Amino acid sequence: MGASLVITARETLEASLLIGILLAYLAQTSNRRYFLSVWVGVGLAVLVSALLGAILALAFGGLAGRLEETYEGTVMWAAAGVLTYMLWWMGKQSRQLSSSLRAEAQAALGKRSSLAIVALAFLAVFREGAETVLYLSAIASTDPGSRVVLGAGIGFSFAALAGFLAYRGASRFLDMRLFFRVTTAILLVFAAGLVAQATLAFQAAGIFPGTIATWDTSRLLVETGGLGGILHALIGYTARPSLLQVIFWLAYVGLVLALYFDLGGKSRTGRYEEPFSPIGRSYQHVMYRVLRWPRLTTVVPAFMGLALLALLAVALFSINVGPFNNEGMLHWGPFQSGENENNLFNLAMWVFWLPLVSIGTVLLGRVWCGNLCPLRLATDWARRLADIITGSRPPATPYLRIGWLLPAAFIIITFFVKWWPVQVVAQYGAILFLVIFGLAISVGFLFRQGTWCRYICPIGGWLARITRLSPLALRPNLAACATCEDKPCLKGTALAGRCPAYLNPSRLESNRDCLKCWNCVVNCPPEKAALKLGWRFPGTELLKPTAPDLWESLFVASLLGLYMAAGHRSPALAQVPWPLLFAGLIAITTAFYLVICAVGAALGGISFRKALTVFGYIFLPLEFSTALIAFGDDALEFFGIIQPAAAVLLTVGFAWSVVLGVSILRNQTRSQLRAIASGAPLGVTLVAVLFVWLQWYASGTVIDLT
Fold first, then answer.
1. Domain presence at residue 488
2. Do residues 111 and 243 both lie within one domain?
3. Count of domains forming the chain
4. pLDDT of residue 269
5. CA torsion angle for 34, 35, 40, 45 (degrees, to 10)?
6. Distance CA 669, CA 264 (A)
7. CB contact at 8 A, 401 and 510
8. pLDDT tens readout for residues 661-688
9. Do the domain assignments include residue 486?
10. How far is CA 111 from CA 24, 54, 250, in A?
């Protein structure tokens, strides 16, 4: 009853307020003779809306089984879609609604036509009436008909009273702004519930894949009666919701919030300004005292290098360490792995290091690259040795700046890691790391400082795009930087050298290439303290996006196929030779990305190149989630959390991608209609990728409740 009451009150209130405003305007302009025309239009709108409801009831009332589930799911999704658009439209047009209606009435009066007034009243009421019929049809699928009728009657009575007060000029007794805010929040939750219930209906009909139940609260509250029944009708509460229901519920909420708050929009200056809250007012803050210690990024990587050398020795010479005796599969207490041999190296590198460096980059940016990685230190020392031997510094290396080199390095190294038993046999893993070390030192010796980290490192190439999602960022104070003449952050000082990635810290606006080495923070004069760490909305630089890169965007698309090849659970794909599977899935996903970019560009009214450059970032959160599942399999299996971890990662990744998609499309296309059209193929692709991974890691049986 609660849902039908709110829906009817909200929809008929809008209609009654419009009619009240129209009647008041006619009375003020001495045109009361048109009152009858207004009521004729209202009557026709109510009649046509009722006929629409009857047609829906007669056409689909006798359905059963899968057809009934399909019909209910379609109606509920349609109702949620129309409700979302209505709330967004009302939020945009509410201020001009009264004046617009008066202008239309004035135009109709200018024609001196009763039919024009009838049409105006009809359209004002029928839009709300048709929406109400659609919503009540959706509610009737989850709430008894008598309660729906009772709630609709109460809501209609309230709306009629409000319309009468608007006509009499007594609307000041009602706080309409508060009413619309409260009902908007309620209706958004209600619409999210409709999306969840429609998802369950489509799963029961076999249209959507079945998934595991997320939780079970049936002992506390069932949805068949009492409070549970009310919540079921109002917000779609289910005691045992499927995982797909939860994913779509959260994704819908994220979509609506992105629309409502206009994420990634322009500031008052016309330029997008990243929301950023710096940590500490000055460099006297304890954190900056640590970061400004010049030896920090030398001492810590040196210790990490010693630890890595020890692990390499353990792996190469099969040294027994505690329970890790190189016999059988990896195990430690109650935890175990069915793939890795029982060596401390495998535990440290594949169970702990690989997942932690990935998650740590999402949380803290490329802190690993600048503060912990011994490879950066080794390449710097190799460069210094080369300077001593040759007596001169090497020139710039523009031929290494080709955009595909960094992605290609990661793809190549992944091919060999998954083809050979690198993550199984500790000796093979150690040899791989020694080869990477040798390559890094060679690059450091031959080319200028920072070349390996910026342009070649496969690990850095993988982390560079992930760090864009991080809530932690290093950003300049533009006002303070503008007053600085000598630019020590750019040129370097005796305390610390210049940025190893050759960035301009005073204009830094993206996390992508910032290694978090703190050289610029060390060099920045303490009286200015212009370069600071701070917090921001996760992934905020992608909302527009900031500094998009064509090759990086394509990289994201190709990685979707790479992770499918590495993390699939398909018996059919398991029969395909690894080189063919690896190259084939990368080629297929990349080609499909080119196609949806072409379609999306045409529908969105933007260039194909622009679509290629920005659309890939929409998939980044979901791509990263699948990466953790595919590459973190050793850790997830070791701790026995593959299914719950996959469920959480896919939920967060999909919802996050939806939010980014809404923001990017709104900022790149020319109109809301083009954004919706352009987003259709991208949304279908996101859902398809989600379904594939759910089928592999969270499939389950959904019971038909009809």
1. no
2. yes
3. 3
4. 46
5. 110
6. 13
7. no
8. 999 998 898 787 888 899 999 999 999 9
9. no
10. 19, 35, 50
Shortest CA distance to 4 belongs to which of 130, 147, 134? 147
Residues 308 and 237 reside in one and the same domain: no
> Quick count: other Cβ atoms within 10 Å of Cβ 27?
13
In terms of domains, do 247 and 304 share one?
Answer: no
Q: How many CB atoms lie within 10 A of CB 388?
A: 8
Residue 327 per-residue DSSP state: S
What CA–CA distances, in Å, run from 460 to 362, 391, 402, 590? 13, 29, 15, 22
Kindly calculate the radius of gyration of the chain based on its CA atoms and give it in whole angstroms. Answer: 31
**CA-CA distance, 4 to 132, in Å (whole number)?**
9
Residues 68 and 179 placed together within one structural domain of the fold: yes
Summarised one tens digit per residue, pLDDT across range 607-636 is: 999 999 999 999 999 999 999 999 999 999
Q: Indicate if 177 and 29 belong to the same structural domain.
A: yes
CA distance readout (Å), 701 to 161, 185, 695, 698: 48, 33, 11, 10
Residue 495 neighbours by CB distance under 10 Å: 12
Q: Pinpoint the alpha helices (H) of 492-605.
A: 519-523, 550-567, 571-574, 578-604
Contact 695, 646 (CB under 8 A): no
Q: What is the pTM of this model?
A: 0.83
Question: Long-range contacts: 99-104, Cβ < 8 Å, 24+?
Answer: 101/18, 101/21, 101/22, 101/25, 102/21, 102/25
**What is the residue whose two structure tokens read 């009435």?**
105
How distant is the alpha carbon of residue 520 from its chain centre?
A: 31
Adjacent-strand bridge partners of 278: 534
Mark whether 193 and 74 lie in a shared domain: yes
Tell me if 406 is assigned to some domain.
no
CA dist 552 and 612 (Å) reads 10
Q: Tell me the C-alpha distance between 617 and 600, whole Å.
A: 14
Phi, psi of 337 (to 5 degrees): -130, 145
Q: Give tens-digit pLDDT for 561-580.
A: 999 999 999 999 999 999 99
Tell how strand 472-476 and strand 277-278 pair up. unpaired
Mean pLDDT score, 171-175:
48
User: In whole angstroms, what is the distance from residue 160 CA to residue 155 CA?
Assistant: 9
Same domain for 71 and 215: yes
How many CB atoms are closer than 10 A to CB 479? 9
Among 261, 279, 308, identify where a domain stops: 261
- Which single residue is written with the structure tokens 């390095």? 409
DSSP-derived 3-state class of residue 204: helix
Residue 362's domain comprises: 292-383+414-452+464-470
Show Cβ contacts of residue 165 under 8 Å, excluding neighbours closer than 6 positions: 20, 171, 173, 174
Domain assignment present for 505: no
Same domain, 34 and 183: yes
The tokens for 533 are 């760490």
Q: Tell me which of 209, 239, 261 is where a domain ends.
A: 261
Mean confidence (pLDDT) of the chain: 82
pLDDT at position 460: 86
- At residue 575, what is the residue type? Q
Give yes or no for a cis peptide into 545 (omega within 30° of 0). Answer: yes
Rounded to 5 degrees, what are φ and ψ at 111?
-80, -10
pLDDT digits (tens, 9 = 90+) for 360-377: 999 999 999 999 999 999
Identify the weakest region by mean pLDDT among 26-30, 44-48, 424-428, 688-692: 26-30
How many beta carbons lie within 10 A of that of residue 439, not counting itself?
Answer: 17
Other C-beta atoms within 10 Å of 673: how many?
12
Angstrom CA distances, 646 to 377, 627, 698, stand at 35, 10, 8
